[in-house]
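Q: Structure for this?
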Amino acid sequence: MTPARLGLRARASRVLLDNWHGQSTVPSGGLYPHQWSWDSAFIALGLRHLSPRRAQRELESLFGAQWPDGRVPHIVFDAATPADAYFPGPGFWASAAVTGPGFPATSGLIQPPVHALAAWETFRAAPELARERGFLPRLYPRLVAWHRYLTGRRDFGGRGLVCVVHPWESGMDNSPAWDEPLGRVRPATAFTRRDLDHAAAGERPTDLDYGRYVRLARTYRDLGYADDPAGHEFAVEDPLTNALLAASEAALAEIAAELGHDPAPHLAELARLTAALVDVLFDEGDGCFHARDVHSGQVLRLGSVGGLVPLVVPGLPVADALVKTMLGPRFRLGELGLPPSFDLTDGRFEPARYWRGPAWFNIGWLLWHGLRLHGEDELAGTVRAGLLSAADDAGFREYVDPLTRSGHGAHDFSWTAAVVLDLLE
Ligand code: 9WN
């Protein structure tokens, strides 16, 4: 490794060491002072090179907060952090009313299921330590219960695909892909945002978005987090969520085989999910996957980068079309080396606002991983170089302008550092 790369590695390690809270890692000290679900998965992918033991703890602590119904909550609140440090905090979600005593305070939403993939990669980094600690035997049944919650309770459309019931569940909160279904929601009032204490308003969702986020979350809470389609104003079949579930089923097959269990049910599930994804959400004309609004039946035909993430699915039959779309004018991946989160040619593209245009490092990692999986090594190398240089220049920011590479959002962001550590290996 060159001295410059060694310096980058040391700085990335420092971010993860500083953001470690004893059992898990916060995404960033000020803006996100608790544990987030899909962040922990990406963090484990980096942490495994720094401290395999911590990487294992990261996932174990998240699954320690798994609900009895199998859902893995999107936030696990740190009891040592003041309740009003983040909005909506533990009092808003009132999770104990459903989980009962003995569970940590959590939100009641979910986030994309990339955990089994992270668990398998974490195991592979230090198999001996993992075996000694019983990492996979403890995690495997929990991962299975998580996946079965998703396929059992969240298939509102009856098409074999998982629905997300809140933009926060998609991980891509204010993506223009959600504007239409979210626009039908009457915004809540009388709440105080905390995010604007730590980030510029122009880089975050709007107050109107927040009003709608709060309304949807309150309704779910007041229904006791019941997964009845009629109770959810917002319900979409999201390609990113379903693709990560499929990739995670493939990882569960590996985990099952390692533990001496039969991998066949997981491979069958992978095949079933892949077929449903392609049949229902792939748009041949557009060379991209699109989410589908379960209530209106409408395909949300917008250029979200989430529509390219199915490249992470092993054996995806439409990988070539996705690569072509990545290289085309809407994403210009070969030229930029970074994936814009939204179609560059669409009037709604905003280069510095959150999920409406900026490039994110976790998405970059997923595309890099998917490109390698499908033999696209040259483009994968371009993405790797783009992510490393952008993180180096901007300094581990939450997201960057894909055109100018200027940094935005939180500083010292954990998954940015984690992705860098993994790409440097
Ligand atoms: C709401 C923690 C999370 C990420 C999400 C990202 C952002 C939260 C927020 O931060 O969402 O969950 O307060 O804006 O959109 O992907 O997991 O890093």
